[in-house]
Design brief:
Helix content: 40-55%
Distance between the termini: 22 Å
Largest sheet: 5 strands, mixed
CATH architecture: 3-Layer(aba) Sandwich
CATH superfamily: Hypothetical protein PA1492
Number of domains: 1
Oligomer: single chain
Strand order of the largest sheet: 2-1-3-4-5
Strand content: 15-25%
Length: 118
């Protein structure tokens, strides 16, 4: 069976333009990873599109936590796209903690180079 990576990054922000930029960058990163042969699950790519057609859903991680954790639990490891705000993101920090509790490796991806670093 092929390993599956969970792609995390910050998303929640009061400015819709920031959320859109984060979505664009995470979706681009998912595409780069696909091109490198990495099978990746990108909950922000998935959730952003759902939110666009269902705008009454909250943006905050508190709403999406169980959905994201369910997806993370099914993945073999985690990649964090280091967009501005990733270090203070409630969601990213909770996901990193959960991955660690499960003994999953967490890798970091530089958005400028779109390379994964151990």
């Amino acid at each position: 069976m092929i390993d599956l990576a969970y792609l995390a990054g910050p998303y929640t922000h009061r400015d819709p333009a920031v959320r859109q930029h984060r979505y664009d960058m995470l979706t681009r990163a998912a595409g780069v990873l696909y091109g490198d042969g990495v099978h990746v699950l990108s909950p922000i790519t998935h959730g952003h599109v759902i939110h666009q057609v269902t705008p009454d859903l909250p943006h905050e991680f508190e709403f999406w936590r169980d959905i994201c954790f369910n997806q993370l639990d099914r993945c073999d490891y985690m990649i964090v796209l280091q967009l501005d705000g990733w270090q203070i993101s409630v969601g990213v920090n909770e996901e990193i903690k959960r991955a660690g509790e499960q003994g999953k490796m967490v890798y970091f991806m530089c958005p400028d180079a779109m390379r994964v670093m151990g």
